[in-house]
Structure of Ketoacyl reductase:
Amino acid sequence: MQVLPAAPSVAGLTAVVTGGSRGLGLLMARQLLVRGCDVVLLARDAAELDRAVGTLGGARERVLRGVVCDVRDGAAVRECFDEIARHHGRLDIVLANAGIIQVGPAEALGAEGFRDAMDAIFRGALNTALAALPHLRRSPAGGRLALIGSVGGLLAVPHLLPYSCAKSAVAALAEGLHAEESAHGVTVTGVHPGLMRTGSHLHARFGGDRRREYAWFQALAGAPVLSMNAERAAERIVSAVQRRRTRIVLTPAARLGAAAHGVAPVFTTRLLSAVTRLLPRDGGSGTAEGLRIEAEEQPPARRLRGVLGVLNERAAGRFNQRG
């Protein structure tokens, strides 16, 4: 068995996590705290940030604070990173995690859905990277930047096409910046998780046959074999950034899917076409958030869904998804 060398310590470094108020972002922030970093959480919702800081209190041995910032606003992001660097005297690690999830047929989500995904996911990652890099280049420890993509950015996932398109752009950005920033001593890690039990289904938006779309997504995202424990995922991501890895793909299913698509893209596309026939086809216009769909469910369906996605429901309660 191969034994990896000890990862370089990140104790005393200053780290920023965008989308850090819940789910994966919250868990990555916890990992950074226990490794001795000062951590700043960025998110749009002040109340969520307050709850996140309270949730992480037990893991806190260093400075922890939340800052309201919308990563879609480039000027606001630059001001935010400038303030963080001034306040802490340095900026060493940035994890660009903010984004949204939309589930449904491309026609139902429409052009607006694609624009929203590109704004929140790709433009958010781009704004974060461009604002952070000047500070990361000055890091005495050598800056580290991680862009959180998805296996959906390595192969197109039906009924998640806006998400896949935006994450594909994030993947290209991570690879390109890794090459360009190496001369400045900054490493850029592309992170591509598969399904994780974060409870994110509650904040995803569903279009088309919204209840059926919610049902399959919530069930698969909590399936033990297909999805990954989110705390384990956060530990592996932060370790990869700490070790300055170029790329990490999480979950066996995600690695298999990405490898199959790279070797046999035509076969993979045909297989996905067959899978798509099992997904909902019809539905109304507009989208609804998972929390709203869950609230409107009748008791029998709600109980069945709870049984199918019990692990994901537990994660939602633990990782600040319910508020």
